Amino acid sequence: MKSVIRRRRFLVVLATMTGLTTLTPVLTQGQSGVQILYALKPNGQLSYYSYSGLPDPNNFRNRGAEKVISNGWNEYSKVFSGGSGVLFALKPNGQLSYYSYSGLPDPNNFRNRGAEKVISDGWNEYSKVFSGGSGVLFALKPNGQLSYYSYSGLPDPNNFQNRGAETVISDGWNQYQNIF
Question: Are 99 and 116 in contact (CB under 8 A)?
Fold first, then answer.
């Protein structure tokens, strides 16, 4: 437990030192023990950092230098990781988009050449949307209803299980400030 707390403190300090506003750790496919941090700046610049080992500034690959991999992400109200190189992006109008990234930090490593792929609409009815990993999305309505969605495969609206229908799994979740 202490190592988890140290690691989170380290990430908060790192975000403060570098002026980043969003850090999303994701395990990289096929590289045991390597964490990928995507960092999103208010100007819409998306960067990539690779980190391995214990919480130590020397464990960043590329000496911790920022690697910008994309721009224009400020059109989204929320960007979050789905794990395994998948990024979900939510626009204020409720459109949910899917991006897939693999490999080393290079703008050319976005699948579909980094083009936006809208996979669903209507997500603006939720106050919070976040990933449970492995293609699972949770969505919270202001009234406290927590819903479950499962998504798998390539970026296509038909890849939602249950045809994308909302599955309410619990109530009363609006009492919490953060759910993760």
Answer: yes
CB 48, CB 36: distance < 8 Å: yes
Dist. CA 29–CA 160, nearest whole Å: 22
Can you give the pLDDT at residue 171? 96
Tokens of 82: 């789905």
**CA–CA distance, 61 with 119 (Å, rounded to integer):** 33
The one-character DSSP state at 87 is E
Q: What is the pTM of this model?
A: 0.75
Looking up tokens 């994308």 gives: 164
- Structure tokens, 81: 């990781």
Alpha helix positions (H), 60-128: none
Return d(Cα 115, Cα 112) in angstroms, integer: 6
* C-alpha torsion sign, points 177, 25, 148, 156: positive
pLDDT, one tens digit per residue, over 10-40 is: 443 344 334 444 444 443 333 556 777 888 9
Residue 31's SS3 state is coil
